[in-house]
Amino acid sequence: MHELPLVFFTVLAQASAGLFILMTLNKLIIKQPDDKAMFVSGVISLVIVGVAGFSAILHLGQPFRAINALFGTGRSPMSNEIVSCSIYGGLLFAHLAVSYLRPQMTNAIKASRIATAIAGIALLVLIPKVYTIETIPQWNTSYTMIQMLLAAFTAGGALAMILQPNRINLAVTVLSVMLSVFILPSYLAFLSQTAPHMLELGMSFWNAKFALYVVAVALAVLAYRKNWMPLAIGSSAVLIIAELSGRIAFYDLWSINM
Questions:
Q1: What is the largest CA-CA distance in the chain?
Q2: Distances from the Cα of 148 to the Cαs of 14, 153, 197, 240, in angstroms?
Q3: Which sequence ranges are marked TM in the entry (predicted)?
């Protein structure tokens, strides 16, 4: 658990991007939710990614030198991650500003929404690339990319269910959870060969993630059927905790502080 700032950064940044991407797709495909709900979802996404960014700063030995990450853009996966998160957050803020100050500029709002969603997709792809390190075989696997992408839509889908409890968001949430559960046994089998001792130490977190998944899906289905927001809020909270548990286990697969 020595990398808690990165645990919160990665999970929350992915949840924020997943939420905004899903709400954008809802707006493009079924023309819902309304502008007010879209604005609220954008604010929630901005707050979450803001907390994620603050968590990342806490991990730095000298936070005021974070600007140095810009010099590694293009060649350093970590720099690309930081820059993409900044671009996503900046575009999201600009989108909300236009939506609030110039609501009549519908084309500009739509364009900025799509641009922000694309930046969110780039962020989701770039975060896992930080951890594909050849010297750490338990990270240097396709499982890392798949699990982190799915995390965006388990947590993001559950958050979307709060504002838009429809079949699309429910299906994305449940399917993402099911895929995560489906690949978990083969991933644990892989870890039992590459890092058996570390896997044993982190099994309680993997077990917690699985158990929380079951609770979260049950709450999400009930939230959809009953159309009751507290259940949707509970589902999203449980899923975020589940992803945090899994991410702690992931970072604990490396015993040396980053």
A1: 59
A2: 8, 9, 23, 13
A3: 6-25, 37-61, 81-101, 113-131, 143-163, 170-191, 203-224, 231-250
Structural domain count, the chain: 1
Q: Cα separation of 239 and 230, whole Å?
A: 14
Joined tokens for residue 46: 């901005």
121-172 tens-digit pLDDT: 999 999 999 998 888 889 999 999 999 999 999 999 999 999 999 999 999 9
Q: What is the DSSP letter of 88?
A: H
Comparing C-alpha atoms, which of 251, 258, 237 is closest to residue 12?
237
Tokens in use for 159?
């958050």
User: b/e string for 92-131 if b means 16 or more Cβ within 10 A?
Assistant: beebbebbeeeeeeeeebeebbebbbebbbbbbebbbebb
181 inside domain:
yes
Q: What is the pLDDT of residue 71?
A: 67
147 belongs to a structural domain: yes
Distances (CA, A) of 80 to 23, 114, 130, 172: 25, 21, 9, 27
Q: Which domain holds residue 175?
A: 4-251
The structure's pTM equals 0.92
Q: Alpha-carbon distance 236 to 219, whole Å?
A: 9
Q: Which helix (H) or strand (E) holds 46?
A: helix 35-59
Q: What share of the chain is helix, strand, coil (3-state, %, to 5)?
A: 85, 0, 15
Distance CA 244, CA 238 (A): 10
E strand map for the chain: none
Q: Which residue's entry shows tokens 């075989």?
A: 137
Q: Which two tokens stand for residue 236?
A: 């999203």
